[in-house]
Amino acid sequence: MDIGISRRLAKLYEEGKEAVLCMVVEESGSTPRSMGSSMIVFPGGKIEGTVGGGITEHRVIQKSLELLGRGAGSMLYRETLSATEAALDGAACGGSMGIYLEVIGRKRELVIFGAGHVGKAIARLGDMTGFAVTVWDERAEFANEENIPWGRTVCCPLEHFFDRFGAFHGDTYAIIVTRGHALDADVVKLLEGKPAAYMGMIGSRRKISFVRERLLEQGVSVGHIYRIYQPVGLPIRAETPEEIAVSAVAEIIAVARGADLPALRSSLAQ
What is the β-pairing status of strands 109-113 and 132-136? Predict the structure, then answer.
């Protein structure tokens, strides 16, 4: 990787700005650039560096903008150049390339609704595992930096949360652990239609059934309700707030990494 690209990446991470890193990781035959050649694609389509120019680079830029539109993710883009395309790209004959694309510069966000014992434990573990943590609660004695020094706290009426927080995106992981059933239901309703990689809600099956019924009566869609992981966490028989945090964050990491959740649940339940 070019040193200029490396320095630019470091600056993006430091500033928390997003872009897509594109790197040639496979090459066969005649290709315009060799393995390790890198390019950064910024929102709007501006680039720094190159993976070969021409048709291939144009297509890689379009794929990068699609990833930025989703707010997160990575992919391996492969392309075989025809003799005509190879000539346009400056290669002597057709070859194939594999280019790895990844959204960089922005941390995965963990948003926790509820700053009680469980929310606090999840915040601490989320920070330890590399998430940008935000904890909401309407109670000032709980949602403050002294009580929860990991990430940031938002203390306001629930209906004003997004005014204070900003928008969710494709790399947001939300978990609902408030002080009561009714407030949990209000949070679920608030999150309807919001983009997120994960939404989970703590509670017994009886509590979850109550919340579902309440939400259906209020007109919340069945699709949104069943989109939420409930009960939250992997089945490790967690009891303490810290154990529940391990269970919940493990499930979130599994979703983030694309693990086989049904297989995990099946093996852990045995």
Answer: parallel
Total number of domains constituting the chain? 2
Number of helices (H), then strands (E), belonging to the chain: the values are: 10, 10
Distance (Å, whole) CA 233 – CA 247: 5
| The domain boundary residue, chosen from 84, 104, 124 | 104
Cα–Cα distances in angstroms (integers) from residue 89 to residues 93, 99, 109, 170, in the given order: 10, 15, 39, 34
Tens digits of residue pLDDT in 51-80: 887 888 899 999 999 888 776 678 899 888
Q: What number of other Cβ atoms are within 10 A of residue 119's Cβ?
A: 26
Instruction: Return the amino acid letter for 119.
Output: G
Q: Is the pLDDT of residue 137 over 60?
A: yes
Where in the sequence is the domain holding 46, given as residue range(s)?
Answer: 3-104
Report d(CA 78, CA 98) in Å as an integer.
4
Domain final position from 79, 104, 129: 104
Domain identity same for 93 and 134 = no
